[in-house]
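ESCALATION

Customer reports they have been waiting on this structure for their group meeting. Please prioritize. Original submission:
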Amino acid sequence: MSGVTAAERSLMRVAVDAATEARRRVAPWPHVGAAVLTDDGTVVAGATGSFPTGPHAEVDAIANAGAARLAALATTLEPCDHHGNTPPCTDAIIAAGIPRVLVGIEDPDPKVAGRGIARLRAAGIQVDIGAEAAAVERQLAAYLHQRRTGRAYCVVKVATSLDGRIAAADGTSRWISGAEARRDAHELRADSQAIIVGAGTARADDPALTVRDAGGPPIGAQPLRVLLDGRGRVPATGALADTSLAPTLVVTTDRAPRDYRAAWQASGAEVVEVGFVVDAAGSGVDLAATLELLGARGVLQAMVEGGAYLHGALLRAGLADRIVAYVANTLLGSDGLAGYGLGGVATIADAPRWRLVDVARCGDDVRLDYVAPPKER
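Update from on-call: job pushed to the front of the queue and completed.
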């Protein structure tokens, strides 16, 4: 990558920016951006088209350049070299006569995995890998995780008081955070393909779990609402049972009664059984199996909306990949419900240290964005 010029890095940054416009419409594809540099110095961008038959980013950028001669192409992710819903991107790049290609990162998908880069080099095209790689890794974190592990990327979203409580002593919790923080949380929903809730929170709050107040790029469809209910505690009534709002998947176990499953199926929801797990901290649905199930269905990012027990279970199991914490401008005291159902840490040396990647102000509240330390992945 030592031969990459400042102008070429700038070209890749245009590609990274272009990818953001595609992030809500393409899963299970990755949202990829591309940019081409013409012989006269013009930069033209492109992005992944709508799934499943829209053009890939490289093809889009080349098409947007028209008949211009192209000096270089930058793409955030390795071009594909296989026939799927669309022809290989490598064919379009080679046909366009582009002499130089910059690739942000290699694609871990087994169908790609270096083949695209090898094909371009075999055609005599100079390929450099790694320009703006850190930015691309952040941008494609959910896709990369899903392709590498088979599990959906798990984002735990929590709204707490300044002293870490998600509800007052009497159980009331609406609204801890202000309107701006709640709008921001809907942006996070819009970037996810599934929203997960535990049985306790579903019973207490009757949440709709739909995207209702998000700006930015439009969503392709409402996220899948996923209810985790290992024993059949949540009745098939209320917002989650209204599948005209959004699809609902109930993940349960063999501990749930048959009439419970039948009621949810009659509502239009899908019901899937996974294993029942018992550990020192409690019991419930197999969370790893659930994330694998969602990953197999093409869910790249699954957002977890509670409750505290579910948050703690995911953290204890090392299955949470990101925490987005909205900290409100209020105090609820020691009798309030803690935001994370975790046991105590015996010594400070054993406490995991999450990595802060972003801080944002949301009115009088603050959003803290953390990713898991490597040992927790």
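Sent to customer with the following note: The first strand starts at residue 33 and ends at 38.
Escalation resolved.
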